[in-house]
Specification:
With 223 residues, this protein is α/β, with parallel strands linked by helices. Helix content is 40%, strand content 21%. The protein has 9 helices and 7 strands. The relative contact order is 0.16.
Length: 223
């Protein structure tokens, strides 16, 4: 985890004043959060952009990240949000009580964590009847899937320009992401289905064009 922490401290310093392409699917993810949600946890909050959106429709939001630089920027951008708390900690070690959240969201973070341990902890922290929303990067699933890269690449550049005013990130930002990606691996579509079937039976999987997927799961029971 130290390597991940160091990488994101570096990326945070480079990207503090830039837009975030990860916000492309924010409205879709937000639509899965119940309107009467009391307490939401975001795991891997980064600069806190999604946490701030959630704070407009939830009673309380707790957002955790292990990068001190990310948390510093998030706090600075969120000074007017009295119902939003940022926590600097390793999610697997953080002192949260079981069944204490009505909704748990994690965006582009699960692939940094030991999968089974992380999802079991999230399920433990989620109240019965609560909603779990997982959004992460997706590995190509075969020749047909890879062929869609001819569409994805120009679309990704267009989104990059829309979000940041650039068709490509600055060279130093690209270099930081490439170096970070050298020790990352993502689930392929069949692995996402297997993970869903094992940990989130009945959960809905949505595949997105820009190398992303979403899993939405309602924990059985009532609070």
């Amino acid at each position: 985890m130290q390597q991940v922490r160091d990488d994101f401290d570096r990326i945070a310093l480079l990207m503090e004043h830039e837009g975030n392409v990860n916000e492309t699917y924010s409205n879709q993810l937000l639509s899965h959060i119940p309107l009467d949600c009391d307490h939401v946890l975001e795991v891997g909050c980064g600069f806190g952009a999604f946490s701030r959106l959630v704070a407009h429709r939830a009673g309380r939001v707790t957002a955790i990240d292990l990068s001190s630089q990310m948390i510093n920027v998030a706090k600075g951008r969120s000074a007017n949000y009295s119902n939003l708390e940022f926590v600097l900690d390793d999610f697997l070690q953080a002192n949260f009580q079981a069944e204490s959240f009505d909704c748990i969201v994690t965006i582009a973070t699960l692939h940094h964590l030991p999968l089974d341990e992380a999802v079991m902890r999230m399920k433990t922290l989620l109240r019965p009847g609560g909603v779990f929303i997982l959004h992460d990067l997706l590995a190509a699933g075969g020749h047909i899937d890879k062929a869609f890269d001819a569409v994805r690449l120009p679309l990704s550049m267009a989104v990059q320009f829309w979000r940041t005013g650039r068709f490509r990130a600055r060279r130093e930002v690209r270099r930081a992401w490439i170096e970070h990606g050298n020790h990352e691996s993502y689930l392929a579509p069949q692995e996402v289905r297997a993970m869903r079937d094992e940990h989130f039976p009945g959960g809905r999987i949505v595949r997105h064009l820009l190398w992303r997927y979403t899993v939405v799961w309602h924990k059985p029971g009532t609070a």
